[in-house]
Specification:
By secondary structure, the chain is an alpha/beta fold. It is built from twelve helices and eight strands. Helix 1 crosses helix 12. It is globular.
Length: 255
């Protein structure tokens, strides 16, 4: 089983959108569990716009606290059909202050709860698990990242974003040592909202292509906002969009 985090210690770069899109694409290869580990609950909101699917007693937080078993808390978002192995969600209610408080206090008492969750997911037959994380790099995020097998950074091609990537690389190296993390080297980089008509974007994309990363470039598209507003993955909203083709290429690499 592989455990993924699409991550950057900055908000608004598209972590949730790409977590959902790549998870959906990987359903072609195996059974996928989405874990909404962000108190904002945006990933859950994509599938439960009125939050009816997310129960306080059957949420990510309740599983962390061992109030309920993982198998009883997950929700089927898309059932398995031919060439699609099924997509499932362990959700968080929108703007869950209880999770925010637990992240800052109670989580420190039992950091092994993430390891147990991952182990339980494997026992339930999941092939892939995705954690959607808050845009910060505290103890809570570090513990989840250290339990991942694959971390995929995501940035926009702007000056400040490149600085964030440099900081990310340094933090990831430190994390691997301090937490004895076993994740694979970060080989792939998502560059979101790229606009080749902007000189600064062209410059940074060309620079990044000379780095050790394999770059997956996504152009800014109104269709992404449309998919979010209709609460469906991009693959269901506009399958012919180049976004979907690039996501499929990334899924083929990481599967």
């Amino acid at each position: 089983m592989k455990t993924f985090c699409i991550f950057m210690q900055k908000g608004g770069v598209g972590k949730t959108t790409f977590t959902n899109s790549l998870a959906y694409e990987l359903c072609r290869y195996g059974k996928v569990l989405l874990v909404d580990a962000d108190q904002q609950g945006n990933l859950s909101y994509l599938y439960a716009n009125d939050n009816n699917l997310i129960d306080d007693e059957k949420s990510f937080l309740s599983v962390l606290k061992e109030d309920v078993a993982l198998k009883d808390a997950i929700v089927e978002c898309r059932p398995p059909v031919e060439n699609f192995k099924g997509l499932y969600l362990l959700g968080t209610k929108k703007n869950d202050n209880n999770l925010r408080s637990y992240m800052e206090t109670g989580f420190r008492d039992d950091p092994n709860s993430i390891r147990k969750l991952v182990k339980d997911a494997k026992s339930l037959g999941f092939n892939y698990v995705f954690f959607d994380l808050p845009p910060s790099f505290g103890y809570y995020e570090k513990i989840i990242l250290s339990n991942a097998t694959d971390i995929i950074p995501i940035i926009e091609p702007e000056d400040f974003a490149i600085e964030s990537l440099t900081d990310f690389n340094a933090q990831i190296k430190k994390l691997k040592v301090q937490y004895d993390a076993k994740f694979s080297p970060c080989r792939y980089l998502i560059v979101n909202k790229a606009n080749q008509q902007k000189a600064v974007h062209r410059y940074w994309i060309d620079t990044l292509r000379q780095s050790a990363y394999e770059i997956f470039e996504f152009h800014d598209s109104r269709a992404v906002s449309g998919a979010i507003s209709y609460h469906v993955p991009m693959q269901e909203y506009q399958s012919s969009n180049p976004f979907c083709k690039t996501i499929a290429m990334l899924a083929e690499k990481v599967k």
